Amino acid sequence: MLEIAQKREGKHLVKLAQKSFSMEQFDSPSHIADSMGVIVGQSPFISLFEKVKLQEAIHFMHDNHKQQLSAGMQEFLYGNQRSGFHQITSVLDGYKMAKWPVLTVCPSYCRPYEEIFIHPVTARKVIDYYQLEGLTYCASPAYDFYRAYREHILFLKNQADPSLQGDNEDFCRFLIMSTNLYHSSAPQFPVGARGHLKAGLENTGEGGVGGVG
Predict the structure, then answer these.
(1) Helices 48-60 and 100-110: crossing angle, nearest 10°?
(2) Please, what are the averages of pLDDT over each run of 10 residues along the chain (213 residues)?
(3) Where are any strands of DSSP class E within 66-124?
């Protein structure tokens, strides 16, 4: 029942984010900033502390910072993604809210098959367990890490059984479920993500997804 409720909530947030961050909405920077607060506030993947702190930051945010935040989100979704990421990070860093979950949750709901949500614990476990080559977890948000991690996640998803190739959020749930079930007792897989994924899928026999770490 909990998994069904989470899926319904996820679909609701996807629709809400896609409407809230459609191109015509960017005429109002205040609307974009408020929408970020709403999405973060409703997401089950954001901690209560981060929800409260972001909403406080938006409430007291100067208009010019809201304009910069809105411009950054527009660039990330519809223009130069690297530039947009840096702009959003710069604004939120001034409020000590430049954290991976806050930065990535809105784009991941807007484009659930293209973008990814980064949860620090999940990312570290996935990188370690699947031995994602050339990738080291970066605690401080950086676009190069985001792009590289996203490429690895999409690569893994493309190698998986079609039953696992839903949106990126669902697939990351499956990955973290695999690390939780098999991290301590897994056989010695070949080095590299491809070998880990193949063996993991064969051993689990799962066609669904588990919970996010």
Answers:
(1) 90
(2) 51 95 97 97 94 97 97 98 98 97 96 94 88 92 97 89 82 76 41 46 38 34
(3) none
CA contacts within 13 A on the Cβ side of 197:
22
The neighbour count for residue 113, using CB atoms within 10 Å, is: 12
Residues 151 and 147: their CA atoms lie apart, in Å, by: 6
Strands (E), 12-54: none
User: In whole angstroms, what is the distance from residue 206 CA to residue 202 CA?
Assistant: 8
Type of residue found at 134: G
Question: Residues 162, 167, 168, 174: is their CA dihedral positive or negative?
Answer: negative
How far from 87 is each of 50, 76, 161, 179, CA to CA, in Å? Answer: 19, 9, 37, 34
CA atoms of 27 and 133, how far apart (whole Å): 42
Smallest CA-to-CA distance from 123 within 107, 97, 100, 155 is with: 100
In terms of phi and psi (left: phi > 0; alpha: psi -120 to 50; beta: otherwise), the region of 36 is: alpha
Nearest CA to 203 among 195, 211, 191?
A: 195
